[in-house]
């Protein structure tokens, strides 16, 4: 089940209490795709990490459905990510020594109850992303585009209701980036997941429902494309 | 309750006690592993880390392995040396010499270490030999050699005693010119040789020109310096030194006792045997006088071993301390290594992996290095023990058969338990790292 996002009065502080991100209020409807846009250093990744509960929130709230993750302790936030969030990073962050399948089903190593289901989900996602037959190869032998697709499969394997992606196309060539964006949008729409992507990529901006503009650590606008 | 437990323990076979002690010593490691890893499957990631840092991991395993191997090897060697020296002195119940240092006399008479020692007279010898409780009184006269092998003058009875009644080949000497060689002497039956005067580099090769022996028998191996000794009639030793032959001229060709005190030139040591164990103690007391010193080589060895026992304790502590220090160094290296792996560990936490899982990954990696190092250490210990045993055997002529036993396995188990507990430290330190900063590299 997709989860809506509601953010209000968000403030993330860096060293010595300096604000590195401030956002008055914004909402993301369940099942929609949103891009966070802005120049380098504007705070796109920080906002994404705040939504994932990875950075401490000094003020305000981040609410996913009924869960106010900004009020959870670290273990609670980790449990929420485990259950509801799939994450994708710019430079893939895969375990190069492991196979595509082992990478995609990584969560099975620490989620005991859904281990079997995660394995199935990983195989299904790899197949859906065109990596069937390559799942036993170590990812060190993969191209950039293939690696990012393994990372997407890893994000999808736990069947999360939210996908958060940090510059997922930045390390890819144009063709691979386009293919990845298409896959990502299609896969999240098919399953009704909420997708939030921090990205410079115009292709991403064209594909999403809404764009949030960030500059100098502040939200400066919101563009709804397909509302 | 406690008494019942002690009784139960005492009633167990030694092998079972040792096995249980091993498990008991290893139990902290097993329990820690169970508590840390239960519910998770960190091994694929551990494998990934091992492969990524394969050369560093290998170096760590070798460092731990060598330190463990040296530790267990030294302790096993000490035990092997103790057993070897005891076995070499097995045939020497009671030794009578002139008063002096028991250790020096034992080294000379039992281990055939060259030494200048005073001689016992024929009266003394006869008093011992004619004692009602003495079944064997053999003079042991040394000082000559052949190509590094000591030539020892004694009696056929002593050769028979050393050989447990059966030579490996040939027969006992029956004439002044005959010799029986030890198992490792490079002479064959029928070979002739001329002894040198003295032992070692200062031996005078041609001092006894004109005197030669023929090898007529070979003793079985005993694992003692006597394996490299050449035994000849004590009368022949006196003869080549132009001394009286121990018997009046009318019996000049006699071999062995009884000796005539008036023609007895003297002997550095006399091996004494009594048929009854208690009699040995009485004889020791009786022959501990102003002109003689009687001692049990076993007792002298026991006091030396007691000293070695203290050394063993020190060695054990030093071995453990060294191993723990090496492991602490390795674990410190591991903390640095984890910085290189920090992005992947931060990724796990970003994906929502419980902190205990990340902890389990790091600890399991460290525990694997320690476990592999300990196993390698056992192998190194076995190899080192075999090599050192050979070297010591070659140097001392005492057969050292050192091998790893339960004490060494107990040491390894204690080491593993202690160090896997230490391995919790880098795992805790890893958890304290900032996730987002590590994620951004």
TrEMBL record, chain A:
Q: What is the lineage of its organism?
A: Bacteria, Pseudomonadati, Pseudomonadota, Alphaproteobacteria, Hyphomicrobiales
Pfam family example for this protein? ABC_tran
GO CC entries = plasma membrane
Give residue ranges for domain ABC transporter.
Answer: 5-227
Task: Write out the similarity annotation.
Answer: Belongs to the ABC transporter superfamily.
- The name under which this protein is listed is Putative ABC transport system ATP-binding protein
Q: Which UniProt keywords apply?
A: ATP-binding, Nucleotide-binding
The terms under GO molecular function for this entry are: ATP binding; ATP hydrolysis activity; transmembrane transporter activity
Listed InterPro entries? AAA+_ATPase (IPR003593), ABC_transporter-like_ATP-bd (IPR003439), ABC_transporter-like_CS (IPR017871), ABC_transpr_LolD-like (IPR015854), P-loop_NTPase (IPR027417)
The organism's superkingdom is given as: Bacteria
Q: Which organism is it from?
A: Afifella marina DSM 2698
PANTHER family found in the cross-reference section: IMPORT ATP-BINDING PROTEIN
TrEMBL record, chain B:
Q: Which domain of life is it from?
A: Bacteria
User: Transmembrane residues, as ranges?
Assistant: 20-43, 55-76, 314-337, 357-389, 409-432
Note whether Acetylation occurs among the keywords: no
Question: Keywords of this protein's UniProt record, alphabetized?
Answer: Membrane, Transmembrane, Transmembrane helix
Q: Does the keyword Transmembrane helix apply?
A: yes
> Which InterPro entries does the entry link to?
ABC-4/HrtB_transporter
Q: What is this protein called?
A: Putative ABC transport system permease protein
Phylogenetic placement of the source organism: Bacteria, Pseudomonadati, Pseudomonadota, Alphaproteobacteria, Hyphomicrobiales
